[in-house]
């Protein structure tokens, strides 16, 4: 019973309950929303957002932010798409895409750690740069006529479940175990929780902050490959504005913008919620132009809630430290009296 109570107190559990509530409420309005087919489609549609949210979680845990994920997604998808269209192998396209994501992530990381540039400014600049590079590389044209074999990857099912969904969920679980059970995996949240304390403990802070941006870049590239496989073409605006949705998803899932708190499981659930909301609006016959307004409102509510929760946690921590100090002084007084 105690374990169950502990689980219910976690932000991830409340996020999952919110997800279930969305399906139940919308299902009462339109029963088709509760069909297994729609649930499966919602998961498929949210895959690239889950992958992006996982990468972003690493950065957020260290107390930084990555705005460039949409630009990396678009650039890596466009370059890999051109390779495939011109007869290159799928393996080569994957390697090149990952290389692009890792390189841009490395530049972001070095800019933040070595040049001491704000992560917001650094990644915002890289977002614009990657957008321009994508347009120049593709001559401002859409990348179309991708090989059928590549597009079919997104359609492969195993026991009735989409293969990419299985791979993404499996990867999500493995990353969660790494961040929570592995000593080095816990470095990321330790840095965001108390940077000075992490330095005193001997944690190579600059190295792991750089790692977080590289991981985010690689995840963005993988999301670009998923995007290309699912959609079948890459426009010059691929990934445009997606960073705001991903940030909202991560924070909704319990990842703090202040750093040190959160999990990839929560971020993944948050990503599914953001996509499910868009799907819910369609089933409820709400005009499409409300999507951005609702997403923006939700983002503001989430950020404000995160700030309030962080403030409450800080006050509680101060009370605990004060209580411990008072108890220690009382013990010293008793010992001195003896």
Describe this structure in words.
Helix 6 packs antiparallel against helix 7. With 338 residues, the protein is an all-alpha fold. It has a two-stranded antiparallel ribbon. The protein has 15 helices and 2 strands.
* Content-based structural category: mainly alpha
The residue-averaged pLDDT reads 87
N-to-C terminal Cα separation, in Å? 44 Å
Helix fraction bin = over 70%
Rg measurement, Å:
22 Å
| Strand tally | 2
Strand content: under 5%
Instruction: Summarize the biggest pleated sheet.
Output: 2 strands, antiparallel
Major beta sheet, strand line-up = 1-2
Number of contiguous helices: 15
Shape: globular
**SSE arrangement, N to C:** HHHHHHHHEEHHHHHHH
pLDDT < 50 stretches: none
Subunit structure: The complex is composed of two ATP-binding proteins (LsrA), two transmembrane proteins (LsrC and LsrD) and a solute-binding protein (LsrB).
Membrane topology: Multi-pass membrane protein
Organism: Oceanobacillus longus
InterPro entries: ABC_transp_permease
Strand and helix map with partners:
Elements: H1 2-8, H2 11-29, H3 36-45, H4 47-61, H5 69-85, H6 90-113, H7 119-137, H8 148-152, E1 157-158, E2 161-162, H9 163-181, H10 187-193, H11 195-200, H12 205-231, H13 242-252, H14 264-283, H15 290-337
Antiparallel strand pairs: 1-2
